[in-house]
Amino acid sequence: MHIYMNGRILKESEWSVSLLDHGFLYGAACFETFRTYDGHPFLFEDHWERLKRSLNALQVEWSMTKDECLDALQLLLAQEVEQDRYIRLTVTAGEEGIGLSGRPYQAPNVIMYSKALDKNAPVRKKGHFLRTRRNTPEGDFRMKAHHYINNILARQEVKDTQTEGLFLSQGGHVAEGILSNLFWVKERVVYTPDCCTGALDGITRQFVLRLCDVLGIKAEIGCYTPEHALSASEAFVTNSVQGIVPLIGMGDNEMVVEDSTITQQLQKAYQEYTHHLMGRNEIGL
Amino acid sequence: MHIYMNGRILKESEWSVSLLDHGFLYGAACFETFRTYDGHPFLFEDHWERLKRSLNALQVEWSMTKDECLDALQLLLAQEVEQDRYIRLTVTAGEEGIGLSGRPYQAPNVIMYSKALDKNAPVRKKGHFLRTRRNTPEGDFRMKAHHYINNILARQEVKDTQTEGLFLSQGGHVAEGILSNLFWVKERVVYTPDCCTGALDGITRQFVLRLCDVLGIKAEIGCYTPEHALSASEAFVTNSVQGIVPLIGMGDNEMVVEDSTITQQLQKAYQEYTHHLMGRNEIGL
Question: Using CA atoms, how far apart are residues A262 and B85, in angstroms rounded to an integer?
Answer without folding.
Answer: 62
